User: Fold this.
Amino acid sequence: VGRALFNVPKLVLIDVTRDNLTLRSSLKEFCSEIPDVPIIALAREPDHGFAVELVKLGVSAYFIFPDEHRKIRDHVTLLYNDWLAKKQKERFVEIQQEVYDFRSIIGTSPLLKQTIERSRKVIKNNARTVLITGETGTGKELFARAIHYNSANRNSPFVGIACTTLPETLLEAELFGYEKGAFTDAKE
Assistant:
């Protein structure tokens, strides 16, 4: 297959027949080199056993063509919308990384430089949960976002919690969760 020989496709449609001897090896090779590309198999007549075999080889969907042309169109539309949402999310994360880069935190104070260095250490340690404390207006949220968008977890949602806005009785549940039945309406 060779990735350098062509631009990486966003979707592959293949016409399949059970007696195609090279199909299995070609699919295996393609899926090992480019695993994230959805492959839709189009067959002329239904064959459930063959469909299962194709799915095991990496095909994401199996349709009868032309009988299921509407299903094919709907599936391709769904795949396109998923791809578009993924690209938009990636672009959002890129923008957030630019905005919340540590180089954009300006100051000469030794304490500020120490805080930046500690934040970078948190990123290297791949911490998932960080508690930042400090006076109002000192840049806690700025550091929280800089840590998040420069870490390996950048594609996960950023969840900032202003602890001072939560009643003490709910703070523990908000940060650490709770068991079912721990209090009224604790369902899960």
In short: The radius of gyration is 25 Å. The chain is about 45% helix and 5% strand.
